[in-house]
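note to self: dont lose this again. the chain is below, predicted strucutre after it. 448 aa total, dont forget to put it in the shared folder this time
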Amino acid sequence: MRRYQRIAAAVAAIAVFSCGCGGMGSNKAADGAEAAAVEPAGIPAGDYESWEELLAENDIRAEFAESLSHFAFNSASAVLSAEEGNAVFSPLSLYYALSILGTGASGQTEAEILGALGVSDKAELADQCARLYRRYAYTEEMEGARAEEYGEEVPQSSIKLADSLWISDDISLEPGYQEVCAEDFYTSSYHVDFKAQETAEKIGAWISEQTEGVLAPEMELSPDTVLAIINTLYFYGGWQDRFSEALTEEDAFTRGDGSEVTVPFMNRTDTMKQFIKEEGYTLSALDTNNGCEVLFLLPDAGTDIDAFTGDGDRLREIFAETDDKWKTGEVIWKIPKFSFGSSFDLEEALKSMGMERMFDSLSAEFAGMSQDPLYVDRTIQEAHIGVDEEGVEGAAYTMISMTESGAWIMEDPERAEMILDRPFLFAVHDYANDVWLFLGVCEDPSAA
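---
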């Protein structure tokens, strides 16, 4: 934890974090393999010690968390720096999809993917991804048990991951690969005909179900596709301290090109809140009720967003800053309500991160997946983010499609003004587990 009070918050998160992960029971895929279920712990609600032991058993290693962090900001820089206007991206969703892909890769293709993911061993990668998935699922079970035991309402919050394989009958996957996908990535397998329109409809419906209806994509699939790897991420976190709707007022937001648009702004003042004021920007964060936080980075007037998105290392240094720069004092908040989505073709971003071979029909190596000669022909992501007085909702899916070859310190009180009336960056951070869920740019809060 980088901030003093957050140490207690992270421990308390064990008691308040609620996760909507699928996988607490059978996940039978029609015409496919049954994904391994996270077996219910069955621990009494009041047995705090046993719950803490179980969650500790499913902690991810510090080195893996570091790899996730580096990947989050490197990929966000590669993706967001190429975008104009509003954009939201989920590095975690992409990480899981690439992990499933990398598990089936071999040779130099495997080395490129694992190198970008920041790991050296596929077994370790699968184990750590499984731990994070189980930790989310067990936290959900714990919260449900405690709510039922004490007659309390479970906080409206969720972090839900889901994975699936969509497989053509034209290829044969290695049984060992499908077993790892099911057991460690909790992946369901569906056997489909990619030439049939109903397959696109089924995939779109599956994504919609896993993202609570936030995303309902109309999928466009190539009839040459023989395998699709899909990850979805759904997030909802209510503000720990909600904004009063009575204080929401219309005001002007200045876009990057100097034009103005009138939008509703949420307003409040926190007398004891942490922030960073450095040359070029101000940074502060708001907590949600599920062990997460939303960080807002406001560039100084005249400083362009590109000065931050263009450098993944700088982006990480700012958002994941350590204790020495954080100050405590009054923070005046003025945040525009916004809701928008993004769609990305990720091929060029992934190539810029060193993953080129998997896109090459002649040299891609996926022997751990299938003896059929496969390569990646498309990697896409769609994401959505919404912020209002109640909280934050985000969703994303990442699809990798393949075809066959040939085909937190106290100081004197200070003050910061987070008047977000010009383009700003934001990030949704699961600080209880140190996982970056979403990063984005708001250039125009009026744009959907």
